[in-house]
């Protein structure tokens, strides 16, 4: 039997980016907050001497333990879903800071088009442009409403970006708080080539600081050293924006944040139209506790947000047969298409870099180009990144090269400094038959059902991938590549190889309780004192990394939570 604890005013489930932002905002306003985190505590000193590619990049030391909890996967409902046993397709983080500790730092706002994607698509092309079964919908918020929260997130994180505004990515209220990062020779080559082709390249916004920075909360951080150990690693300089070095210290300084680590929430308790608290397990002692709360805010990873709601029987589960229900609806991933270029007469030092160091363009993202004669909507951000080619996992050779032996060695040595990539990070639209639910067979170490994912690439994704790959090859040829090799065409989605960690949807936001789970403050329609925050709120995935939009929505949700604590009731 669970030990019942005294009620707390605010309870946060998961202390990553979303949880850290909300904890910071609520404690600064004077509210006491308890945060439950299933993993261990983290601090800057933990990142010292972390340049171990085998331990962290290949053996996933900062990720969740799949032997205790994972998901099951299938491409369609005619297949039997099987558990994901090894890390590949995506990498949920573990411990205080969550995936915010090991991300690369690419920090781009979603487009104005994204928030009104259904209305804008129909307005320009008509309803026939949307294929049968595609379930895109407006998010219940417009650019003008969400832009101030992007601005607040960027000032907190110290995002480094181009001071010249790109008109394709939405009107800004302020420039980036720090200037763009350095441009390497290959980045300059991309910029020149893209401009010659008539495109509009710019420095990619980065959460890796270009210079020392002090944010509005008084947090001071050092500049990036371009060491190439960002993705899958913590930054020992604090140069990469991370909840552990930005928002969480602010909340702790108030004295009003209590963080309980090794505390895995098993279910949310509720009565009538309100959440009453949670039951969680101390993973070190095996003890169960019931923690009552006046306000419950779920800020765990996308997949865990959905799983907890389904296990707790909160909200109506999505039914793909009827298209009704909202919990588990509109799961989306990330697609793309790119190319690799081989240079005979140029050499590049690609072994230095930073997670978000790069240049990109949005000429083929969102609805910035005419889709009338194309077999897809939306698009992707085309980018040349220099995140750092760490030595073990990088060994690119031209197609047709033997995979072992003398010729392989010769080609490896020749092209180790003569290879560049241009890639398209493609959007992903939701479909009626893509969803998340509870697996009827497999359970986690706590005896609870695993979350089941039903998902596959569609013709929309394949057409977009080919399009982005062709544009990427075009840019590489203009850069002087002797030969280019496009990325493989998308076939059926396979969860095994790494592709992107950008899962979205399942607890989506909107303006109608019939088609969404949360309103534009991420407050649940069915439970007024429950907020569900994170990329689980995305009604589709854009052609960008999700973190900046998660950050903006977290600041919006924090404002909503403060309003609720003051006045109660539904905020919309």
Automatic annotation (TrEMBL):
Highest taxon in the source lineage: Bacteria
Residue ranges constituting the Glucose-methanol-choline oxidoreductase C-terminal domain according to the UniProt record: 439-554
Key words of the record: FAD, Flavoprotein, Oxidoreductase
Residues annotated as domain Glucose-methanol-choline oxidoreductase N-terminal: 142-331
Family under the similarity heading: Belongs to the GMC oxidoreductase family.
Protein name: GMC family oxidoreductase
Species classification: Bacteria, Bacillati, Bacillota, Bacilli, Bacillales
């Amino acid at each position: 039997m669970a030990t019942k604890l005294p009620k707390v005013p605010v309870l946060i489930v998961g202390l990553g980016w979303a949880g850290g932002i909300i904890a910071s905002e609520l404690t600064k306003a004077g509210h006491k907050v308890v945060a439950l985190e299933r993993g261990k505590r983290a601090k800057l000193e933990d990142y010292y001497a972390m340049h171990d590619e085998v331990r962290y990049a290949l053996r996933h030391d900062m990720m969740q333990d799949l032997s205790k909890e994972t998901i099951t996967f299938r491409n369609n409902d005619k297949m039997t879903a099987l558990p994901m046993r090894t890390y590949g397709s995506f990498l949920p983080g573990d411990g205080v800071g969550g995936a915010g500790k090991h991300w690369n730092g690419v920090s781009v706002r979603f487009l104005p088009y994204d928030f009104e994607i259904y209305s804008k698509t129909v307005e320009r092309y008509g309803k026939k442009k949307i294929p049968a079964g595609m379930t895109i919908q407006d998010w219940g918020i417009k650019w003008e409403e969400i832009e101030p929260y992007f601005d607040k997130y960027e000032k907190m994180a110290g995002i480094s970006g181009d001071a010249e505004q790109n008109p394709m990515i939405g009107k800004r209220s302020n420039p980036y708080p720090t200037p763009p990062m350095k441009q390497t020779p290959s980045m300059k080559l991309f910029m020149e080539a893209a401009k010659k082709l008539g495109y509009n390249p710019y420095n990619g916004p980065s959460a890796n600081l270009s210079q020392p920075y002090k944010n509005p909360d008084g947090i001071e951080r050092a500049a990036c050293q371009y060491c190439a150990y960002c993705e899958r690693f913590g930054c020992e300089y604090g140069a990469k924006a991370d909840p552990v070095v930005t928002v969480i210290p602010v909340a702790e300084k108030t004295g009003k944040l209590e963080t309980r680590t090794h505390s895995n929430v098993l279910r949310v308790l509720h009565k009538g139209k309100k959440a009453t608290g949670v039951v969680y397990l101390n993973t070190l002692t095996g003890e169960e506790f019931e923690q009552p709360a006046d306000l419950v805010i779920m800020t765990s990873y996308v997949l865990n947000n959905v799983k907890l709601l389904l296990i707790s029987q909160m909200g109506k589960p999505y039914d793909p047969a009827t298209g009704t229900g909202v919990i588990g609806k509109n799961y989306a991933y990330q697609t793309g298409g790119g190319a690799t270029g081989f240079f005979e007469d140029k050499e590049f030092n690609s072994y230095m870099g930073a997670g978000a160091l790069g240049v990109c363009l949005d000429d083929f993202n969102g609805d910035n180009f005419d889709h009338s004669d194309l077999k897809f909507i939306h698009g992707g951000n085309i980018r040349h990144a220099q995140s750092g080619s760490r030595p073990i996992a990088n060994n690119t050779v031209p197609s047709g090269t033997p995979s072992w032996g003398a010729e392989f060695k010769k080609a490896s040595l020749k092209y180790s400094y003569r290879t560049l990539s241009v890639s398209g990070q493609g959007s992903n639209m939701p479909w009626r038959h893509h969803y998340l639910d509870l697996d009827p067979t497999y359970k986690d170490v706590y005896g609870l059902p695993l979350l089941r994912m039903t998902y596959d690439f569609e013709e929309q994704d394949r057409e977009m991938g080919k399009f982005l790959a062709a544009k990427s090859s075009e840019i590489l040829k203009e850069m002087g590549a002797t030969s280019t090799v496009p990325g493989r065409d998308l076939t059926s989605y396979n969860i095994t190889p790494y592709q992107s960690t950008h899962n979205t949807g399942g607890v989506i936001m909107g303006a109608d309780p019939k088609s969404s789970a949360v309103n534009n403050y991420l407050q649940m329609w069915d439970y007024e004192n429950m907020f569900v925050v994170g990329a689980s709120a995305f009604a589709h995935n854009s052609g960008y990394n999700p973190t900046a939009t998660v950050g903006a929505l977290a600041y919006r949700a924090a404002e909503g939570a403060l309003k609720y604590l003051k006045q109660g009731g539904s905020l919309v």
